[in-house]
């Protein structure tokens, strides 16, 4: 192996097998903890057209907003805090901020505000934080975590006033932000619209694309063999194959191909067609869970395929991956999970992140 390849950091892959009907299944927990999602891919072997009920769910995904030059302190203003943040189902993420170079801000649905800051910004703000887990010999980056639902940060308290003053007067940080919300009421919508009216913003709907793949080799998967020891291919090879399919890479290693020598892992079979549906945008965990629920019901009717796949990619430059676990880009920014849903309601869950990130829950 070349020295350059040896320097590449390994990724961390956690695999879990369970059944959706098992009362101890944690599939909903894992989905809810992955706050910031930018891409969803659904692969359905032996399917040529997206089923109407799945299409309906995808088309009902929440719109999202790109707000320009928003002062960070607006996220702490009393009306916004009480009407939106503390009620949950609201997400905000700084846009076009590189996590290894720039300051990056994230607001989780739990009400935690995460500020990943360089040393100069951290010292100027004067807020209490901790050194980043990704510092080397000297601490050059810091993480400030503010639980906006905590009583000590209620409007009117000394701590609230100090934090607000730091972000509003001492160092008024401004960034472009992605916003999205899920199933909010009239009061919450009114509060958000009032804020949006004060700044330049764009409203977007998640983009959807479909592709029907013909005569492709497909790995053989058995619910009981997630490790690929006897009947199935191993998880790394399966995910590699999924990536190749998403990138439209030929998996047959044809003799006349000079572009790719990749071949579908064994054991395999040929499927006459497969549907690949991709959704991109700023997608909430609630939308992901609604889609996962509909995919489970896909097998309520007889199907030729024994499984379907759902892959969810997180933002590579998000300051967190699962929950409030710190995330870095380093060389790849890996930050995704994949469900393989079987006919009998068994599922495999693959969770992948960078080698130095915290282990997925």
TrEMBL record:
One of its GO terms (cellular component) is multimeric ribonuclease P complex. It holds the Pfam family Ribonuc_P_40. GO terms for biological process: endonucleolytic cleavage in ITS1 to separate SSU-rRNA from 5.8S rRNA and LSU-rRNA from tricistronic rRNA transcript (SSU-rRNA, 5.8S rRNA, LSU-rRNA); tRNA 5'-leader removal. GO terms for molecular function: ribonuclease MRP activity; ribonuclease P activity. PANTHER family: RIBONUCLEASE P PROTEIN SUBUNIT P40. This is Ribonuclease P protein subunit p40-like. It comes from Cyprinus carpio (Common carp).
